[in-house]
Amino acid sequence: MNHLASGSCLCGAVTFQISGRFESFFLCHCSRCRKDTGSAHAANLFSIQAEIVWLRGEDKVRTFQLPGTRHAKSFCMECGSALPMVQMQGALLIVPAGSLDGPIDVRPNAHICYGSRAEWTDRLASAEKIDGLPAQPA
């Protein structure tokens, strides 16, 4: 069965479609991924057989490669949103889960680099859950 997923950046300048299935979904807590996302972890889908087609704005996609490492991040030049990238000479597609516009049928396989997580992530489960924005102080 061929799976289709579509995605975009925050400003809509870049849109894409993925055909194929994702083999892995990892939440990476390494310090580099935390810097990339500004959050507790990166949430990336991985595939060795899926293919990406850029529908709009491929010329607005830039990739930053951290010198001396395999760590890279693709993003929209207009809004800075994380975007998919191809690595390992075209053998691996990496898609930030948040860049997809609809639901996906795979759930995270693992938290990786968990030993280097930010200390405050251990308290996330006990944080208050609010469906909208918090109330403004009076």
Strand order of the largest sheet: 9-10-4-3-11
The figure for the number of domains is: 1
CATH architectural name? Beta Complex
**Roughly how many Å apart are the termini?**
54 Å
Estimate the strand proportion.
Answer: 35-45%
> What sort of overall outline do the alpha carbons produce when their principal axes are compared?
globular
CATH topology: Metal Binding Protein, Guanine Nucleotide Exchange Factor, Chain A
Q: Share of helix among residues? A: under 10%
Uncertain regions spanning at least 5 consecutive residues: none
| Strand element count | 11
CATH class: Mainly Beta
Radius of gyration: 16 Å
Average pLDDT works out at: 92
Description:
With 138 residues, the protein is mainly beta. It has one domain: Metal Binding Protein, Guanine Nucleotide Exchange Factor, Chain A (Beta Complex), CATH 2.170.150. The protein has one helix at 31-37; strands at residues 4-8, 15-19, 24-28, 42-47, 51-56, 61-65, 72-76, 82-83, 85-87, 92-96, 110-112. A five-stranded mixed beta sheet has the order 9-10-4-3-11. It is globular.
Secondary structure: elements and pairs:
Layout: E1 4-8, E2 15-19, E3 24-28, H1 31-37, E4 42-47, E5 51-56, E6 61-65, E7 72-76, E8 82-83, E9 85-87, E10 92-96, E11 110-112
Parallel strand pairs: 3-11
Antiparallel strand pairs: 1-2, 2-5, 3-4, 4-10, 6-7, 7-8, 9-10
